[in-house]
Write a structure and sequence with these properties.
Two copies of one chain form a homodimer.
Chain A (H helix, E strand, L loop, with lengths): L9 H14 L19 E3 L3 H7 L3 H20 L7 E4 L1 H9 L6 H18 L2 E2 L8 E2 L1 E7 L9 E5 L3 H11 L2 H19 L5 H14 L9 H19 L7 H16 L2 H10 L7 E7 L10 E6 L11 E6 L3 H6 L5 E2 L3 H4 L1 H18 L3 E8 L2 E9 L4 H13 L5 H7 L2 H8 L2 E2 L1 H9 L3 E4 L1 E4 L2 E7 L2 H10 L4 E5 L7 H5 L3 E4 L7 H8 L4 E3 L5 E3 L4 E4 L2 E4 L3 E5 L4 E4 L4 E2 L7 H15 L3 E3 L2 E3 L3 E5 L3 H9 L5 E5 L10 H9 L3 H25 L4 E5 L12 H17 L4 H20 L10 H7 L1 H20 L5 E6 L5 H22 L4 E8 L2 H5 L1 H4 L5 E4 L1 H9 L10 H7 L16 H15 L4 E4 L7 H10 L3 E4 L4 H15 L5
Parallel strand pairs in A: 3-4, 16-17, 17-18, 18-19, 28-29, 28-35, 29-30, 30-31, 31-32, 32-33, 33-34, 34-35
Antiparallel strand pairs in A: 1-2, 2-7, 5-6, 5-7, 8-9, 8-11, 9-10, 11-12, 13-25, 14-24, 15-19, 16-23, 20-21, 21-22, 23-24, 26-27
Amino acid sequence: MATKTASKTAVKAAAAKKSASKSGKAPVANTPAVKAPAPKQWVYLFNDTKSVSKVAPTWNDVRNLLGGKGAGLWDMTSAGLPVPFGFTITTEVCDEFVSAGNQITSAIWDQALSAMKVVEKQSGKQFGGGKKGIRPLLVSVRSGARESMPGMMETVLNVGLNDATVEEMATITKNARFAYDSYRRLLMMFGATVLDIDDEKFDAPMEHMKEHKGVKHDTELTTDDLKELVATFKQVIKKETGRDFPQDVHDQLKECAMAVFRSATGHKAKTYAKQMGWKTTLPTAVNVVMMVFGNMGENSGTGVAFTRDPSTGNKVMLGEYLLNAQGEDVVAGIRTPKPITEMEKEMPKTYKQFMSITSKLEKHYHNMQDVEFTIEEGTLYMLQTRNGKRTARAAIKIAVDQATEKLITKDEAIKRVTPTDVDFLLHPQFDGEEVKKAKKEGRLLATGVNASPGAAVGMLAFDADLAEKWGKGEGKAVILIRPETKPDDVHGMVAAKGILTARGGATSHAAVVARQFGIPAVCGADMMKIDLTARTVTSNGHVIKEGEWVSLDGAKGESYIGHLPTVAPRYEDQEDLVTLLGWADEISARKTRTLNDKPFRGLQVWANADYPKDAERARAFGAIGIGLCRTEHMFFEEVRLPIVQRMILAKEPDAVEAALAELLPFQRADFEGLFRAMSGLPVIIRLIDPPLHEFLPSGDDLLKDVTNAYAKRKYEGISEDEEKELKGKEVMLAAVQQMHEQNPMMGLRGIRLGIMIPGLIKMQVRAIFEAACNVKLEGLDPHAEVMIPLTGHINELKHVQPELEKVAKEVMKEKGVTVKYKFGSMIEIPRAAVTAFEIASLAEFFSFGTNDLTQMTYGYSRDDAERGFLLKYVEDGILPTNPFQTLDQTGVGELMKMAVSEGRRQRPTLEVGICGEHGGDPDSVDFCYRIGNNYVSCSPFRVPIARLAAAHAALKHGIAKK
Amino acid sequence: MATKTASKTAVKAAAAKKSASKSGKAPVANTPAVKAPAPKQWVYLFNDTKSVSKVAPTWNDVRNLLGGKGAGLWDMTSAGLPVPFGFTITTEVCDEFVSAGNQITSAIWDQALSAMKVVEKQSGKQFGGGKKGIRPLLVSVRSGARESMPGMMETVLNVGLNDATVEEMATITKNARFAYDSYRRLLMMFGATVLDIDDEKFDAPMEHMKEHKGVKHDTELTTDDLKELVATFKQVIKKETGRDFPQDVHDQLKECAMAVFRSATGHKAKTYAKQMGWKTTLPTAVNVVMMVFGNMGENSGTGVAFTRDPSTGNKVMLGEYLLNAQGEDVVAGIRTPKPITEMEKEMPKTYKQFMSITSKLEKHYHNMQDVEFTIEEGTLYMLQTRNGKRTARAAIKIAVDQATEKLITKDEAIKRVTPTDVDFLLHPQFDGEEVKKAKKEGRLLATGVNASPGAAVGMLAFDADLAEKWGKGEGKAVILIRPETKPDDVHGMVAAKGILTARGGATSHAAVVARQFGIPAVCGADMMKIDLTARTVTSNGHVIKEGEWVSLDGAKGESYIGHLPTVAPRYEDQEDLVTLLGWADEISARKTRTLNDKPFRGLQVWANADYPKDAERARAFGAIGIGLCRTEHMFFEEVRLPIVQRMILAKEPDAVEAALAELLPFQRADFEGLFRAMSGLPVIIRLIDPPLHEFLPSGDDLLKDVTNAYAKRKYEGISEDEEKELKGKEVMLAAVQQMHEQNPMMGLRGIRLGIMIPGLIKMQVRAIFEAACNVKLEGLDPHAEVMIPLTGHINELKHVQPELEKVAKEVMKEKGVTVKYKFGSMIEIPRAAVTAFEIASLAEFFSFGTNDLTQMTYGYSRDDAERGFLLKYVEDGILPTNPFQTLDQTGVGELMKMAVSEGRRQRPTLEVGICGEHGGDPDSVDFCYRIGNNYVSCSPFRVPIARLAAAHAALKHGIAKK
């Protein structure tokens, strides 16, 4: 490696000379007064650190100049790593090449030849051979564009072999087979790549030879076979092109370089660029790299390694190698490679060097590396290094370890981990191989919307009651399958391991509940025909009966027949994740932005939780507030639903009041639990939101029952009991029909309901404050925030809020204690966003209900769109993404931005958050940071993801202006 | 009237004197170097034109200073009219009065006394009497606040009578009865108003006296009776207050003035102010006016008159008078007044004076006047004049006539007429008396939303088929009554005289169709129980059967039992209206505003029309474009619906194409008719908008039918035909259920449908362009504008519009002719408004669909809201108005404003209009003008109203900046 730094400036000197001679003037040396412009440098040696740094100050510049591969080789060489010698003809030449009519100008080529001279010096070898006792210098010629363009890369290996050097090589290496095998490869590649001869013309004689010799693999061919093939290949070239294979190695080199440049504007490249949506093809560089061989004997070898375990992230070198072998031998699998640790015994010195190099590599790249190396007669060459691919688990462990080792900063560790990594770690997963197998065996049942991630396995149950009976009662693993779910299915949903529906999308009832409870779900799998009478599902050619086993991948939106094995991790056990997200929270707690010209901390992560146990889980996951407690979920519980129905059907105010009085203690108890679990932290409780008919049975079912009963009465007569039952159903049907709305999502819901039945929300507010006072009296610290849903006009708040605040004050007076509280509004009606300045005159906080806001802003019914046109829209690229999954920043986001800025103009201290399904989506979290939200609130299971995303946002955008 | 101008400055002089004497200094006269500040003037004579004009330069200032009544008296006097003499103590005194502890300070009172001296001089009479042979001066004391406050006005008449002057009066007038009747009135009013004695204390002895004398009317009491009453009333005052009625006339005057000032802050005034939402009560002025008497003999009299006929607007004086009578005699109806024309014979000189005065009055007020006058012994006094109330018809005629007479400008004429006037003129109306009678007799059937104005009478028909059969087939007058209407009811709706529904509001299907066709409708009359089986409606205690007569007032939202008579006008016959709206169009054609710094004309009025005959009607009504042709309405016609259903149910693309090919000629023929009717004017045709299930039967009905058929099959067996019918219904039910959407308004509609079934809109565009080309080839000039509905994302246009433009070009090439055309988009999804900059990159015009935009921006389902919470919201003032009737400028309007400005930023020539139901609402038209719309489009019947409203907007806001 002593020669490595030699003659770095030779190329430049050559360039200067040529330039001077072309312009007809002698270079003016040492005359600073009239300094000649430096001639353009077209060629850079791998070790030409300074010149490159000068013209290309940033890594991006280097990449643009030298192409991806050239930049990598240059960078490794600069870092002092043992890289085969070589040089790069820059991407700029590619344009020159085209301008010159697909020719490399002599000014450029002279620089390449000078560089080759340096490489000869560096390696001590001669290109074209003839140096006694020393192997001729062979090189590979490789393309390398600014962006990786897989499949259009042109490469020719073993350039430098000809009829003479092949013999030198055979003699010196004492391995004629190796020499001729290399030669026939050069002929094949040169013929195909440079001379554009159909591969088939070379493959046919080779196949013919193998057949003739009765062998199966190329490796079984003898030296003589290969010599014969070399002769044949030379004839093919002559026959196909009318010319001989060039014996002049410099001609070989130039033709290869030209072939690479040609390929940059060739048909393949154009097609690729078009596919990528680029306006033009990308220019490529040409890399000329000294060939090294690991099959030069027992002091040679080749291998691959990861600097840390890519599966677990543990800090152990993991790799394998083979002595006296080439890379392809490892791949071919004829010989079994040894674990890298054995190298320590076999080649202790090289092993030590390798370990030192990989340690250096980690330091240079600040990351775990995936390396390829070759040992040629005792000399170690690093052929490639790159950041190693790793599992989610390893990504997190490596980030945490490297930060602990001070190899990277904590900020860097946070940046290194993706939300997908965190997501992956927290949901049970199937073994990928098992999934492949199942698909191969035709056991794919159905695909749908990936509504709630995670893997689940269970027996199909076709209704919620059965799911509860099996799941809760008998402890069986159940998958609940339904055409779609409704609020009264919830008891069966929470008892199931997974949920599978034929209708509804990512924000359907099934999906929302599933994510809320961390239950894997596939929704809207509309290829399924569910027969609720026969208790069968027909899909993808299968008919599956109730009780049969099904596996369900909620992250992929797929379900399979049978029982696939799963792995289920626990957050608290994920030490590294817990550490990492602790750092994330530290970042989010920094005052990284400004609000009203004052420093303002990053985004907090809160959770949506309806029950105390959800709140506890949310807190365990790191949530520091409850952003949404949906009070109506409490109404669906078995004991309570009849009371709620009684209230709805009541004709007299007294009966309504009586039912509400019965509900009060239930709600109060729920709220007490929430406040206890979240003592010291804010709890936002939303007043009743859904339309009342959701608490009543389905109108279609009632209509069918009633019609059937009429028919029975007509034809057969019915009993007294049946008559009584019919009467009840008639009353219920009349109520359901009277309450029926064409578009219930835009109907009597939220605050509208509160205004029509003021007693209902007053009861809820009373329950909230009684609970908060009771918990305060226990010595805890409840923070109650009462949220009014579906506000569209400030007058709605004016009508309701003072009355509710009065109730709050009354209760605190009764209890003789005061608690911290706020009153605020959901922002989910576009009009509320547009008139935010007015709304904030009463609302002390805003919480964006982005599900509804998206629904109304787009005019897409959440219940319908995802099983209808919306899927096609996303498929056809009419929409970039499903706006119910990733926030539509251009439309919905613009309204949010307006609302935040107008709201804070009215009330500078306005607390702003988001509690829609987007709260756990990383892109949406980033957006919420940018528009100035105080927090995002999401389902407990997505809290870790949101914590990471919030820190990412702070690192990306967070530069406090003051 | 010679004395009228005398001593105008006496009051000021008195004020100066008093002020000077108070300050202890002599007034410094004629020493301009050290001029003393003018003492404040608290009292103004009616003829003190100059002083008032100086301190109150505008009419509003005068009104503020003198109060409404005072200002009127001052103004008439200034105009040289014979008004009784008098003066006003200003409203400013009212505040002084309160500050001084409910006292009139002597500085102020001295000014009043001085003014009274002037009035004595002007009238030649003495206040308190004693001037030989001349009647004592009597005055009335009247309140008059800045705003009219009906019911809280305090008035005392005949002030100046006492035991002495009553005798003088009796002697001089030779009418003792008159004198004592006047005196007892003064005593009653003074007692009640000034001394706060209960009316009852005076009424009781009076009733007692009448009973005792056996008479019915006050007028039948004799002089002696009245003398006795005067004595009794004086005793009442003494008994109730412990003091005597003041005999000093100046004391009477002062006490009356104080009573008026007290009343301004009294209980009644406070209650009234609270009702009106004023923060404080309003101050009042006190007007002291000389009493004049029309019952002084045959050369006296009294009367009222309108300067033009307030009913027809004809230019004839219309009024009546009575000689030797007081105003109350006219009212009491004991004597029959004579028409004013007879005065010419009876009092030719006075008549001439009266005609000259009223002509002067019209010129002064530039308007038709409603006057009251009294002739006292040959002298004419104008007691009051005000702009006369008039019917809508008269309003329009008078405006046109007065502009033609150059009494007012055309602009003024336009301002004078309200949209309500125009509306009233164009819809059949009931006689108000008949309506009162019907209500009194308990014949009110039901009240609901005033969905489409006009009066209609007909026989109830309970379904559309019957309505068509009776209405179209048998030429009967029919009122169609339905729980709600659906598109397949349209044939029956258009055959009906009126529509009555139990469900749905101002933008329900029934309401929109009704307004579209100018059919009166009352919707959402939910007190009605409609029994479709029994064919009866039960409401308001009545049970009405099919075929019974009902009358329906669409403007009031009321319906009555029985046949009320109506009047039905025709636009073309309304000559004055046609003239007036011609002027309105001239105003709208002025370049009254700027767009991109260039002058830009006012708002055009276009119409929504689906059929050629609608377009013709719209053009007759003055529309200069079609802003919305709803192509889907054409699909509901009898012959076409089965083809549409076939297309919807088709499983194979070929079958879809075949059905579309069948529809093409129908659509083309419709469009040809439209283009012919609107040659030279733009016609915007909207591609299909509603969800497909609207073209299929009701799911509930199908479910009931199928369930019933199953039951019949089970219990009784069914025939082969029935089995076949069942099969068909099963297929239809399955399709309906499969297509069912939870919220169809936010579902598969508009462009979404166009993207899912591209053949459908391509067929429509082909039909549009084939029609346009054919009409062009006939020598006419079609302007086709193709409108894409429900756009929410620019990519939707990108996906569809180029394909449609291709079809357009293809057709024009086939036909060998080019036509003028544009492609544009509805703006009805909030997101389209928010991203208008993007949308305008493809859309050449925007048309606001404010029905849907309101629906989505508010999150109010149009189909449901108006029968639910929305009515309560409007009732309780949570919403100022129903946003489906009057555009919500703060919310929805803000989005529109944003869309116009962003759209024009992208495309400065963007054509912008509105085609929602608001297009015909005057306030909304005003808003559309302000945000820079090019046109509004409304139903043909509202075009005249919109034309007037557009001109109003131009006059109000239209000041071109450049």
